[in-house]
Specification:
3 domains; 4 iron, 4 sulfur cluster binding; binds iron/sulfur cluster; Rossmann fold; five-stranded parallel sheet; transferase; Quinolinate synthase; metal-binding; binds 1,3-dihydroxyacetonephosphate; alpha/beta; four-stranded parallel sheet; 15 helices
Length: 351
C-alpha cells in the first residue's frame, strides 16, 4: 500500500490515541487490517465494541450492519464511524422491514405467528433486528447459530430465520437434526412467500430467501474439483455456503472457527477454504508450512467489504483529528431499544 497513506493513517491514529478504537472484520483488505486494534468475526467484533466504553470513536472497518450493531451496543456518547457509507451487504439488503412485516401478517392470519420465534442473522439491518426484538426473538451469528436456535425452540415450536437461508438450513439440518422437509423457503417477492397454508403450518423452520453473494458462489463442483486436484485435501467452509457444499465439506464454521482450525492443522496438511478471499490469502501467507488454497478457481472478494480501503480510512481518521465526525452511523432510539433486546439475548446465550 501507498507508504504516504500508511504514514498518515499511523499519525492520525497516534494523534487520537485511546479516543479511537478501530475494529476490523476478517474480510477487510490487508492495507486496512494493519490498523485494526482488534480483528474478529461479527460476533467477536460486536462484543469488542460493547467492551470499549472509554473510546469516544469506534471506527468500524467492516460493513454497514456491523456498524449499526456497534452503535446499538455502545453508549450514546460514543460515535461509530464507517469509513465508506457504500460498504453495505447484499445479504442484509435481501430482508426489508416492510417485507418481513408482510410475512408476519401472513403467519398471523394463519394463526401460527404465536408459535413462531423470529431469529435474525447478525447480517441484517437494525430495522430487522428491531422487528425481531419486538417479537421476542434473538440475533445470531455464524459462531452461535446453534445455541440461538436451541434457545428459540425452547420458546416456540417454529422459527422464522432471517435473512440467510443457508445458515438457517445448515444449522437446522446439520446441527439440530431437523429434516430438509421440516424447512420451507419463504420468498418475499411472491404472494404468501410462494407457500401454501399447509406448508406454513407444518414447517418447523421458515427460511427467508436470502443468501450471501460471495459464499453462494461455491458449488459442489468446486468441492469435487479440488478433491480431484489435491488428494487428501481438507475442505473447510463457512456456513453461509449452500447446503450441498457444506454437506460435502469436512469442516464448517464461522471465520473465527476457520482461523482456529488452520492454526491447529499439522504442518504439511492441505486445506481448501470456502470463505472470503482476503482472509484465505492472509491465512496462506501466515502458514507457509501448510498448503492453503481458495476453494474455487475463480477469485471472489466481498466487493462491499473491499470498499473500505486505506484512502477512506485515512480520511475518516484525519477528519476525527480535525474534530469532525464523518460517516457516523446512528440507529433511531426506538429501533435501537428493540434491536438491543435481541442482541442482548444473543450475548446472554449460554456457552
Ligand atoms: P462471520 O463474521 O460471522 O463469520 O460472518 C461472515 C460474514 O459474511 C460477515 O459478513
Ligand atoms: Fe454480506 Fe456476504 Fe459480504 Fe458478508 S461476505 S458482507 S454476508 S455479502
Amino acid at each position: 500500500s501507498d507508504p504516504d497513506l500508511v504514514a498518515r493513517a499511523a499519525a492520525a491514529k497516534a494523534a487520537l490515541g485511546d479516543r479511537v478504537f478501530v475494529l476490523g472484520h476478517h474480510y477487510q483488505r490487508d492495507e486496512v487490517i494493519q490498523f485494526a486494534d482488534v480483528t474478529g468475526d461479527s460476533f467477536k467484533l460486536a462484543r469488542e465494541a460493547a467492551a470499549r466504553p472509554d473510546a469516544e470513536y469506534i471506527v468500524f472497518c467492516g460493513v454497514h450492519f456491523m456498524a449499526e450493531s456497534a452503535d446499538i451496543l455502545t453508549a450514546d456518547s460514543q460515535k461509530v464511524v464507517l469509513p465508506d457509507l457504500a460498504a453495505g451487504c447484499s445479504m442484509a439488503d435481501m430482508a426489508v422491514l416492510s417485507q418481513v412485516e408482510t410475512a408476519w401478517d401472513v403467519l398471523t392470519e394463519l394463526g401460527v405467528a404465536r408459535d413462531v420465534v423470529p431469529v435474525t442473522y447478525m447480517n441484517s439491518s437494525a430495522d430487522i433486528k428491531g422487528f425481531v426484538g419486538r417479537h421476542g426473538g434473538v440475533v445470531c451469528t455464524s459462531s452461535n447459530a446453534r445455541r440461538a436456535l436451541d434457545w428459540a425452540y425452547g420458546q416456540g415450536s417454529k422459527v422464522l430465520f432471517l435473512p440467510d437461508q443457508h445458515l438457517g438450513r445448515n444449522t437446522a439440518v446439520l446441527e439440530l437434526g431437523l429434516s430438509l422437509d421440516d424447512c420451507v423457503l419463504y420468498d418475499p417477492h411472491k404472494l404468501n412467500g410462494g407457500l401454501t397454508p399447509e406448508q406454513l403450518r407444518d414447517a418447523k423452520m421458515i427460511l427467508w430467501r436470502g443468501h450471501c453473494s460471495v459464499h453462494g458462489r461455491f458449488t459442489l463442483d468446486s468441492v469435487n474439483d479440488v478433491r480431484e486436484r489435491v488428494p487428501g485435501v481438507n475442505v473447510l467452509v463457512h456456513p453461509e455456503c449452500r447446503h450441498e457444499v457444506v454437506t460435502a465439506a469436512d469442516l464448517v464454521g464461522s471465520t473465527e472457527y476457520i482461523i482456529r482450525a488452520i492454526e491447529a492443522a499439522p504442518a504439511g496438511s492441505a486445506w481448501a477454504v470456502g470463505t472470503e478471499l482476503n482472509l484465505v490469502r492472509r491465512l496462506a501467507l501466515a502458514h507457509p508450512d501448510k498448503q492453503i488454497m481458495f476453494l474455487d478457481r475463480a477469485v471472489c472478494y466481498c466487493s462491499t467489504m473491499n470498499r473500505i480501503d486505506l484512502p477512506h480510512l485515512v480520511w475518516a481518521l484525519e477528519e476525527l483529528v480535525a474534530g469532525r465526525v464523518v460517516n457516523q452511523i446512528t440507529v433511531d432510539p426506538d429501533t435501537a431499544r428493540h434491536a438491543r433486546a435481541a442482541l442482548d439475548q444473543m450475548l446472554a446465550l449460554p456457552g
